Amino acid sequence: MDQREWATQLIESEARGLSDRLDLIRPFVLTETMVIAAAPPYDSLWRVERFLFESREQLRREIREFLTWLRGPGRQAGAHEQQRRFVILRLAFNNMLAQYDLFTEAITQRSEHRTGVWLSGLDILAADAMRVDVAGFTGAPMVCYLSRGAGAAIRRTRTRLPGGRSNPVAIIRIPRERMIGSGIASSLIHEVGHEGAAQLGLVESLRSDILKASKSQPNRGWDVWYRWISEIVADCWSVGTIGLTSTVGLLAVVGLPKFFVFRPSASDPHPTPYLRVLISTRMGEALYPHPQWAAMRSTWKSLYPIAAVPAEQRAALEKQETTISAFVDLLLNHRSPALRGKRLGEIWPVSQRTPAKLLALHTAWRGDLGVMARQSPSLVFAVVGQAKMAGRITPEVEAELLRDLLSAWAVRSSLKQPTRSNEARAGISRRAS
């Protein structure tokens, strides 16, 4: 066998090996052991399976086309050209594996005893938090999973995945150390806010307003708000949805050694933690006027006394603090075409989240799990968090209650799942055997 034949045979063997390994990747619905109540939302799982199926089918076509070329016209091509085309094919295979691995962690955790069901309950909370009072807004399919670390994160829909395809569902990473207390809703709904803000184009439209304000009020630190707005609008989504529970949860995230709490953010899109909590309390105060917000500010400042900060750094922080109220007014009064005539501060169920109403609901529900399981999940988290801060329930009672509610929501949702369509059945079962 001459050198050309040897090279062609070697490359063909590698390509056929790719095809064989590709067939080992099976749909999640055939490989996972999760109970039905732990399954991700039907629409989300169907989108993921369809997305991965289409990726595998595209790669199969490319492998077949390559082998056809290699056995035909490609046999006369130089070994370098055969290898160039194969390397591109192998890169596509690795991109497909990267796509698969991206969803694997979110899906396989559903097989963990109890945790899988709680994650399903958090999916329902996320979907509930995405509902806002904007005509025609439908939100996005979302799936939650746990990871170590103090912060949450999201891979939003329509962002590019390895290989260039758009992400079909939002994947929300939640810190495992926050399972389970009302504070987990703060992190989760913040990430939901990133997805909602992206779909409504809020960051871009708010930056336009900030630029206008900076021209009319120069030297007022508007450049900082311009840089931080993506994180602040996500915090606002959380405060607008669950009230004080959001700010209390934020404290757990940014309660760090004082060096980090006061450190300037430079190019970081996250506000300086010291200021971020103050912004959260000001948003809450504007949406739900109540003395609790001033008390929360005082508490935060007592935990991190600014007097201990070097003079120059302290002066910069205090100057920025004086602009918070004006900025929050701009934020909540923001209007854009995507909001369909509403102000930003009007898209959340603010009237149902006042401290007095939340505590009244806590009294009316009397801890009845059956009654609470029939309520909006975000409302329940707001009520439970407010009740804990009012000293009506202990952290231990809160944790037990929320675990039971997440399980109840998961079970209730699993009993409402639609029957899989013929299209979906074909998409996720092909080449399963």
3D architecture notes:
This protein is mainly α and 433 residues long. It has a domain at 3-108. 63% of the residues lie in helices and 3% in strands. It is built from 19 helices and three strands. Strands 1-3-2 form a three-stranded mixed sheet, sandwiched between helices. The longest helix has 30 residues, at 42-71.
Give the gist of this structure.
The chain is 63% helix and 3% strand.
Low-confidence stretches: 419-433
Biggest sheet character = 3 strands, mixed
Q: Span from first to last CA?
A: 37 Å
Would you tell me the structural class of the helices and strands? mainly alpha
Content of β-strand:
under 5%
Secondary structure tally, helices: 19
Strand order of the largest sheet: 1-3-2
Instruction: Tally the beta strands.
Output: 3
Approximately how much helix is present in the residues?
55-70%
Gross morphology is globular
Q: Mean of residue pLDDT?
A: 90
Q: What's the Cα radius of gyration?
A: 26 Å
List SSEs in N-to-C order. HHHHHEEEHHHHHHHHHHHHHH
